[in-house]
Design goal:
314 residues, alpha/beta, 8-stranded mixed sheet, 10 strands
């Protein structure tokens, strides 16, 4: 496959990516749209003319952000709706209430390196939030995505996927000791594998999905990160080993996946700094790129089947 490149890069902003693009008539959902890069993703889409729904747990916070986006963009077509990604009834209500074609589903919400936790079903909360909730949502919204024709799903992953494949023998840490970064890593690998398999399985509906690493951005996503890890990040920043992005810059790669013409009809890719990443070996010591295990078609197919069974649709 030819690697996808664009004219944008690490310092590009969401507004720059959508500049000159008319999204009038486009309906978009942004999960986690009330904080972090979700706000800037939604703002850029609304500013380009899209009808945007913020799918959020806290509707009060979502309403405040929606109002602020309406004021800053001049768009009246921004609203919030309740969605809890670890509550299957909430996901079903949201999907069943959606009554029009859906052109863009931006699966942006997530949790990072949180303490041990389980859903009502006994699932690891990171895997449930970051992957299973979005998986169930995408399936519930499949008719709306198909009705749009050439719809796109944007799966916000992370370089955290470099830390772990999906451990199919013990996804929910029932036998191995819980380790927050391994749990986060496998959930982010799952985000990439979802994009690979969704593009294959939903092709007949004209739906494509791509995954991405937004970059390092300090938001509420890091609220569970230990002080020790934060100190290491500070040392890395001071030494110039890596840099942070603003939320506007962090949202840029999501916008590339959502609207860039280079990705029209193209799916199953992993983007970083607004371009498709290089594939790296599973045992390589790296901080960027996409692991082979995250693009493995056999693992992607297996994850899809396992996920269907877990949510009761197998």
């Amino acid at each position: 496959m030819t690697r996808i490149t664009t004219r944008f890069g690490a310092t590009s902003t969401a507004d720059e990516v959508v500049d000159g693009i008319d999204l009038s008539g486009t309906c978009a959902i942004v999960t986690g749209g009330a904080s972090g890069i979700g706000v800037e993703t939604a703002r850029a889409l609304a500013g380009a003319g899209a009808d945007v729904t913020l799918a959020v747990r806290d509707v009060g916070a979502g309403d405040r952000v929606a109002n602020e986006i309406r004021e800053t963009t001049g768009s009246a077509a921004v609203r919030a709706a309740q969605l809890d990604l670890v509550d299957r009834a909430s996901i079903d209500r949201f999907a069943n209430a959606w009554d029009r074609p859906l052109h863009l589903l931006v699966s942006n919400a997530g949790v990072m390196a949180c303490p041990p936790g389980r859903t009502a079903e006994g699932w690891d909360v990171q895997f449930a939030t970051n992957h299973l909730g979005h998986f169930a949502l995408a399936l519930g919204l499949r008719p709306a995505l198909a009705a749009a024709g050439r719809a796109r799903i944007v799966s916000v992953s992370s370089s955290g996927h470099l830390a772990s494949p999906v451990v199919f023998d013990d996804i929910h840490f029932e036998r191995r000791e819980y380790e927050p970064w391994s749990a986060y890593g496998q959930s982010k690998t799952a985000n990439v594998l979802f994009a690979v398999e969704a593009t294959r399985r939903l092709a007949a509906d004209g739906i494509v999905a791509n995954a991405l690493m937004p970059g390092g951005i300090m938001t509420r996503l890091q609220r569970h990160v230990s002080q020790e890890v934060r100190d290491g990040w500070e040392e890395g920043l001071a030494a110039g080993r890596f840099t942070l992005k603003t939320p506007q810059q962090g949202a840029a790669t999501s916008l590339v996946a959502a609207v860039a013409p280079e990705l029209e009809g193209v799916g199953g890719r992993y983007l970083e700094d607004c371009n498709e990443s290089e594939t790296v070996a599973n045992d390589a010591t790296v901080q960027r790129g996409v692991r082979e295990w995250a693009l493995d078609p056999a693992a992607a197919s297996r994850l899809w089947d396992v996920s269907l069974e877990l949510i009761g649709r197998g």
